[in-house]
Write a structure and sequence with these properties.
Blueprint (H helix, E strand, L loop, with lengths): L3 E5 L6 H7 L4 E6 L5 H13 L5 E4 L9 H5 L31 H9 L8 H7 L5 E6 L2 H9 L4 E4 L13 H12 L4 E5 L5 H9 L4 E3 L2 H32 L16 H6 L1
Parallel strand pairs: 1-2, 2-3, 3-4, 4-5, 5-6, 6-7
Helix pairs in contact: 6-7, 8-9
């Protein structure tokens, strides 16, 4: 459907399996840097081998935020699933199945993610790959500038589904600040809270080059599998087209930020 799929380090489908299933699709590989850098190096090598076109470095998750539902439900993977990207690299592929208390995912990230990663480590990542590096998790002008100075190819404005830092800004509110700071030097994307075609229109008008989806795709997958995902993407495309028609827009490349106003302005009228 002419979309980009970002495969997580922690996915239960491997980079190889996905590449073999959809060889002609656009695929990016989302990377968490592990304390054992050799694991990260091998994952990067595999991403290159299997035709992934970019690495997406998530920068807002040195640790997992407090997800009380996960703690209460003692979240872990069921026995028939494993984190396949670790297969053949380390024994970590089933580590998330074995946690006995609290949030297994939180314990896993604390034990195996490298909490010492800084902007300087982007230089290390770029030194081991020819793939462009996209950073995900930027919400401020300052961090956008740090990312550009570090040599990233693009930025994803993201708050990790608002599941990391409680009370953090919504991505649509942070988008304009980041776009303004970037000033066209790299592409800017956004995720988080995108549920309708009008949400996409607002994001594009405020300067995003594209939007990424999380929960809507998962919900659709749970309801109707592959067809459900096709349906939700088709629905969003139709809603975007209608929103553009009703707002007098003919080209996504010509959208202006003046198309979007904050509700506080309306309240004063």
């Amino acid at each position: 459907m002419d979309t980009c799929f970002v495969l997580s380090t922690l996915a239960t489908t491997s980079a190889q399996s996905l590449a073999e299933s959809v060889p002609n699709s656009l695929k990016w590989y989302q990377l968490y840097i592990t304390k054992n850098r050799n694991i990260a190096k091998e994952m990067v090598k595999r991403a290159e081998t299997y035709g992934y076109k970019a690495l997406v470095l998530t920068v807002d998750t040195p640790l997992l935020g407090t997800r009380r539902a996960d703690v209460r439900n003692r979240y872990r993977l069921p026995p028939h699933l494993r984190m396949e990207n670790f297969d053949g690299i380390s024994a970590l592929s089933t580590e998330l199945n074995a946690k006995k208390k609290g949030s297994g995912l939180s314990i896993f990230t604390h034990e195996f993610f490298d909490q010492s990663v800084t902007w300087a480590d982007i230089a290390w990542l770029k030194s081991i790959t020819s793939l462009p590096v996209v950073v995900k998790g930027v919400l401020t002008a300052e961090d956008a500038e740090h990312a550009i100075s570090a040599g990233v190819a693009a930025i994803i404005v993201s708050n990790h589904g608002a599941r990391q830092l409680d009370g953090v800004s919504s991505t649509i509110m942070a988008l304009s600040e980041v776009v303004r700071q970037v000033g066209g030097r790299v592409e800017v994307y956004v995720d988080g809270g995108v549920r309708t075609g009008t949400d996409i229109l607002k994001a594009l008008a405020l300067g995003a080059r594209a939007v990424f989806l999380g929960r809507p795709v998962l919900y659709a997958l749970a309801v109707s599998g592959e067809q459900g995902v096709r349906d939700i993407l088709t629905m969003l495309a139709k809603e975007l087209k209608l929103a553009m028609q009703l707002s007098g827009q003919t080209d996504v490349n010509d959208l202006s930020k003046d198309l979007v106003v904050h509700e506080s302005r309306i309240a004063r009228l």
